[in-house]
Amino acid sequence: MVVNKTEAIIGRIVLVLVLILTLLPLAGMLSGALQPADRIPDGFSWPSDPQWGNFAVAFRTAHVWELLGSSTLIVLGVVPLSLLLSTLAGYALGNLRIRGGKYVFVLLLLGLTIPFEAIIIPIYYEVSAMGLLDTQWAVILPLIGLYMPFSVVWMRAHFVGVPTELSEAARIDGASTFQEIRRIQIPLAMPALSALAILLFLWTWNQFLLPLVLIDDPDKRTMAGALGAFQGQYLNQLPLLFAGALIIMLPTIVIYVIFQRQFIKALLQGAVKG
């Protein structure tokens, strides 16, 4: 009993230390963002006269409203389609006996090893040939394809753990494959789908390279993609740069805090099945 209490105390101390180390960079950025715009922050120090107006200047200069609309459009194009396709493909690979399914699964695993930075040039020429450059579709379509390997493998891992007796019972009752998916499989997959949706949202919202390469208009990029132009404009005014970076990071932090229970539930569910 004493050993268990000691381990619990040590575990809590470690978690507190990790939390502090995680929050320190954010606190440092916040203190830097509140410095006068013409001052170079020198370490972590809370200013005597916080310049909260730096956030208003960064918000206005970075065209945050336009970027919010563009980022939302890209997210709404990527996340629902990715969830739909990965759910159907994951169910097919996990529950249905399809010819060549094992080879498709191996190809998906190989796709996980390819960094999309290595194929950015072919993506550029393909998008250019489709006439989609400088539009949000130039980012939406490649991201759906790039997310498929992970998304399908994720959903397949869930469907493999679902008892086959449920499918057999549904077939005996006369349910078609799509009825089974809609009425049985999808409700059971909600934790996995919720966690995948959170991951896809975070990856899409924080996407930097693709919008920077494929979209010339900064107002049509993601918020993270516009950070490069903002950085070039205010490289010598670090407080404004810190304020802009915090504004860009805020939506992802809020989304994770709101849906962290669903995310952790899905991870624990996978661990129990594992």
Automatic annotation (TrEMBL):
PROSITE patterns: ABC_TM1 (PS50928). It is found in: Cell membrane. The chain crosses the membrane at residues 73-93, 105-125, 137-155, 186-205, 240-259. InterPro entries: MetI-like, MetI-like_sf. Keywords: Cell membrane, Membrane, Transmembrane, Transmembrane helix, Transport. Pfam families: BPD_transp_1. Its main location: membrane. It is a multi-pass membrane protein. Residues 68-259 form the ABC transmembrane type-1 domain. Belongs to the binding-protein-dependent transport system permease family. PANTHER family: ABC TRANSPORTER PERMEASE PROTEIN MG189-RELATED, ABC TRANSPORTER PERMEASE PROTEIN MG189-RELATED-RELATED. This is Sugar ABC transporter permease. It comes from Streptomyces canarius.
